[in-house]
């Protein structure tokens, strides 16, 4: 293996190691800078994760638009050098504010891992017992029935810092995800109809007489759904774990996407093999005019609806740890 290849793979692993420590800790540290006992800062903290995700998407957009141009037209080395210099500047700015940061003091409580272990121990002893029936309000946050979907309007109406609860944000994101997949399936069906009408089934390189604007609804819905889901998960895993485990909680949030990527690859592989075996051709054949991505989108929509149903059932009995932060 050449030295250049060794450096390439070493760099990839270094990035992975750096991200594993940076991503969960920096979000928890940023949210810790807000005082939960101050109403104004409590409201600002509820918007912190929104702005965090907005800046992350902005950085991704800049990377795609600017750095790709630099690498394609100027130099690959310069394309990697610019983000390297940017990270050094960001590190200097971060370290320069060390004296102004708020650090959470360690409480005298016992280890959170001991408390969590005790929960599982008691649950194992009492797994045969039944809880006494109660009203809906005994299992939900006071006033949560009046929360609205749109966060800015909900904050005005309900007076809650985050406008809607974190679980409602996640549920809204999953719902919009299902709708976006349904939209994608309908658009793909329309595209295949146009392909068939113009005799382009066996011409994968020929342009399809459809406007690109057909793709706007599904991508817009999916973008909004991702914003609701990711921001909701970030705030949920931050606010609902013990203060000592906030970084661990945000690591669990990130593990959801890692596990999802593995399951996605596994699902595609299984569908590819089954469709190739029991149908005329694979859903993912190289010729998209002969493929059936619409079937795959319908499957994803069904999976999203099943996930939404399971999510709704699991959240009915959930009791928030701190109602003033959700």
From TrEMBL:
The chain crosses the membrane at residues 51-70, 77-97, 250-271, 295-313. The keyword Transmembrane helix applies. Its main location: membrane. Residues 1-20 form the signal peptide. It is a multi-pass membrane protein. Coiled coil: none annotated. One of its GO terms (molecular function) is transmembrane transporter activity. Keywords: Membrane, Signal, Transmembrane, Transmembrane helix. One of its GO terms (cellular component) is membrane. It is found in: Membrane. Pfam families: PTR2. Belongs to the major facilitator superfamily. Proton-dependent oligopeptide transporter (POT/PTR) (TC 2.A.17) family. This is Uncharacterized protein. The lineage of its organism: Eukaryota, Viridiplantae, Streptophyta, Embryophyta, Tracheophyta.
């Amino acid at each position: 293996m050449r030295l250049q290849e060794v450096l390439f793979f070493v760099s990839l692993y270094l990035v992975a190691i750096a991200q594993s420590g940076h991503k969960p800790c920096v979000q928890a540290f940023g949210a810790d800078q807000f005082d939960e006992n101050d109403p104004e800062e409590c409201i600002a903290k509820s918007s912190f994760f929104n702005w965090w995700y907005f800046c992350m998407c902005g950085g991704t957009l800049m990377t795609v638009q600017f750095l790709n141009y630099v690498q394609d037209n100027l130099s690959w080395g310069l394309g990697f050098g610019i983000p390297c210099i940017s990270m050094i500047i960001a590190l200097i700015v971060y370290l320069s504010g060390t004296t102004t940061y708020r650090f959470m003091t360690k409480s005298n409580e016992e280890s959170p891992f001991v408390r969590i272990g005790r929960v599982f121990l008691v649950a194992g002893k009492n797994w045969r017992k039944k809880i006494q029936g109660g009203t809906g309000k005994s299992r939900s946050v006071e006033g949560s029935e009046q929360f609205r979907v749109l966060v800015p309007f909900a904050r005005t109406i309900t007076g809650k810092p985050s406008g809607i609860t974190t679980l409602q944000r996640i549920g809204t994101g999953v719902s919009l995800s299902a709708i976006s997949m349904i939209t994608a399936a309908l658009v793909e069906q329309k595209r295949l109809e146009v392909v068939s009408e113009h005799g382009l089934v066996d011409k994968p390189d020929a342009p399809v007489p459809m406007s690109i604007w057909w793709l706007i609804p599904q991508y817009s819905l999916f973008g909004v759904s991702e914003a609701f889901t990711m921001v909701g998960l970030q705030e949920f895993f931050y606010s609902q774990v013990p203060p000592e485990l906030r970084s661990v909680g945000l690591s669990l949030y990130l593990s959801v996407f890692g596990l999802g990527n593995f399951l996605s690859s596994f699902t595609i592989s299984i569908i590819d093999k089954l469709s190739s075996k029991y149908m005329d051709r694979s859903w993912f054949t190289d010729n998209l005019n002969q493929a059936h991505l619409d079937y795959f989108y319908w499957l994803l929509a069904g999976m999203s609806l099943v996930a939404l149903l399971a999510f709704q059932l699991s959240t009915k009995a959930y009791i928030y740890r701190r109602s003033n932060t959700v």
